[in-house]
Each structure stands twice: as structure tokens, then as C-alpha cells.
Amino acid sequence: MRSAKRLTVACLVSVALAASTLTAVAEDVPSPAPDAQASSSPGPSAELSAAPSESAAPPAPPSASASPSEAPEPVEPTQVPTAATPSEQASTPASSRVEGVAVEPTLTVKADTTKPVGTYGYASGTISPAAPADVVVQAYYSGAWRDVNSVTADTDGTFRLRLLYGLNTVGTQEFRVRATYDGFAMTSDVIVFTRTAKITVTSYAKTKVIHFASYVKGTIKGASSSTVKLQYNNGKKWVNVDSGKADSSGKFTIELYKKVTKGTHTYRLRIDSKLGWVYSDTFTQKRIAGWKSSITNTRASEVKYTYQTGCPVGTSQLSTISMTYWNYDGKIATGKLIVRRDVATKVRAAFKAAFFKGFNINRMSNPDVWKADDVTMMAANNTSAFNCRKVTGNPYRVSPHSYGRSVDVNTYENPYRVNGKWYPSSKYGTYRPKVQGLLHSNSTLVKELKQRGFDWYSGWDWQHFQG
């Protein structure tokens, strides 16, 4: 029995020494990650093989005084944890990208919310991290989301798409953006996009003489009413000053407000639509004081070639009218007419009325420019009055222009016939179309001069008015 006890103790000592050796070897082997240790619970066999503490003494042999019937209790080995290295102490961050595993991208979208009909809206955005994702804009109609436009994002992840559906329809439309990349799919929030009616100014005169009629033209699209209102900014507020109707194609023409003074004036147009009032862009027109005139006593230097000794009237009986007119280029020019003083105000009033009706005059220069040569002056299409000379084509008669009460207007379009010949050209002698500068019975200048006692020699001397 005693021999058996000694054998048992020897076996225990051998087991303990073997375990100590295994522990020493294990210290040279890297420990598994803390998470792996925590997930593996030691079983009973592991507990038996745990290494004893290096400071623990080997179990003592049984005492000689021990009772023969008692066996010595084996000493439990103490388990000492192995010290972790710094890299083992730091845990791996939960947000780190694991090598070889794709990170889910995010989609950011900004979009227009309101545009006029016929005008594109846009949705733009970014894929992050940057990736060339496939991007689609969808519109909701007929009970489902449907693709209406697509693009591939740039390498920096940015993209821009047109909101195409319902381009020419007034109302509200829903859109959304979807993007796919590397197996991931992203969808934006719903974009609520509104298209309003549209009013566009297509033409108007940027500069106009005060009191002259002027018009604005434009088009409307998507409006529930064809009525277009013209609004004028009086410096304090917008006021309605006129209105017009658009035709079936949406085109309209409205006369601009005429009761304005010299200066720059601001306008806009308004229409009613099912979504409310819609305005055009504002536009401005400059009004200028175009008509200017003066009447002065004629100087001898102004009639150097047109006055001769023995003329029916002297310089002291003449007046020089300086006044503006519309030339054939549609620009304002200044000319001079020399007439007898007793008809000066009448002539000026008639030409003023013609100016405000937009009547064009090719040229209004002193006949002295041509040294009083009537044939040459007619070929230059000049408008003139006093010229003391003989009748062109009849050297035996004194011309009525010698008395200062005759006016010739636009001599080329309104030729003069004598002895069967038209001066300066026969082109418009009998053919009288409505061309610029050509006089006819409804011409403002004809009416104004006749009202003031002048005769018009139509039919043979179309250019001539006799007071």
C-alpha cells in the first residue's frame, strides 16, 4: 500500500513538471486575439493541463508521520495570465473597412423645384465615396416609377440629370433619383417639381421718342387665360396700364404706355394661370424728346446762292426753320427750311405733325449746298423751300419758290413733270406704291399742309406744295 502511494505521488509530480514545460513553450507562441480567447471556454481537460505559477513550489513528499491510511492531497497549480503585447491590447475599430470588402456608398441629391414650361429642370448630386455609378432619374406617372433619363457619374462621383418628363405641361410632377454601384442600390427622397406658365417678351423698341406709339410683342405658354396685362412701374408700385389678347398660337402685341416723360421706363407683363399669376422679366424703354425746332431770321450767308438781286422777297422777309425729322434710316436728323416769314409757323406745325406720325424725309438741306441748282438737288432727293430761280424746264417763268411760300418734299419719290419729262426720274411718275417718303392723299404731311392753306400739285408735280 505504501508503495502504491509513493507511485501516485511520483506520477503527480511528473504531470506537474510536464505541464510546466508546456507552459514555457506556450509563452513563445503568440496568443490568439482577445475576442478569440473570450469565445472559447476552457473544458475540464484544459483546466487539468493549465500551467502552474512559476513561483509555486513543487508538491512536498508525504510526511513520515502521516497516517498510513491517508494519502497526501495534490497541490492545485495556480494559473497566471500571460502579459499581452501593445498590439494585442488595442482593439480593432468597428468602422474600419475590412480588406477586400466594399463600403456601401451614399447618394446626395439637390434639384430644381420650379421652372416655366418648356424649360429644363435639373437634379445634380454626388456619390460618396466617389464612384462611376449608374444614375437614373425616375418620374412617377401611370401609377408607377418609370425611368426618364440616365447618366453615368463622373469619376469624382458627381452627376447632373435633366428632369424631362412633363416638359410642356403646367403642374406638379414627382421625381426621384436612383443609383447603383458594385451591387449597392441607393434612392433619393422624392423631388416635388412644379412647372409654371411662361410669358416671354420677343421684341420692343429700346428707344422711342415721347408721344410716339410703341409696341411690345411676346408669347405665352401654358396659361389658362389668353389675356396679357401690361404693367408699368411708376416708382412706387406696379400698375396695370393696358392689356391684350394672345392668339391661338400664344402670340400677342400690346401698345406700350404713352403717357410718359423723357427718361427710362420699366415694364413687365402678367398672365393668370392655374397656379397663380405669372410675370415676364422686366424690360425698360428709353423715351427721348425727339422733336426740336426753332425759327430764326434768315441771314444773308444762308442764301448766298438762292438769293439774287431783283428777287420778289428780300432776306429780311425770310425765316429759317431748324427742325428734326426721321430720315430713311429711321434715325432722327436735323434739317433746315427757309420760307417766307408769314408761313413759317404753319410749315413748322405741319412737319411736326408728320414727325410724330413717323413720316420719313430723305434729306433736308439748304439749297446752297448745290449752289441752287434745282435739277441736281432733285436728284439728291432733297426737301427744300426758298430758291429764287426760273422754273425748271421753262426759263421764261419765275419759279413760285422765289416767293418763299413753296415747299418740295422727297423729290425722287415725288417727281415733277414739265414738257413731257419727269424730273429727276420717271419711276414714280405714274406708279404710286406705298413706299417710304412717297406722298399720297392720306399722308399726314399732305393733310397737315392742306389744312393750313397749301395746295398740293398731285398728278404732275407730286413734290410741290404751294402756300
From TrEMBL:
The keyword Signal applies. Pfam families: Peptidase_M15_4. Residues 1-26 form the signal peptide. Residues 79-95 have a biased composition (Polar residues). Keywords: Signal. The keyword Flavoprotein does not apply. Residues 395-466 form the Peptidase M15C domain. Residues 34-72 have a biased composition (Low complexity). Residues 29-103 are annotated as: Disordered. InterPro entries: Peptidase_M15C (IPR039561), Zn_M74/Hedgehog-like (IPR009045). This is M15 family metallopeptidase.
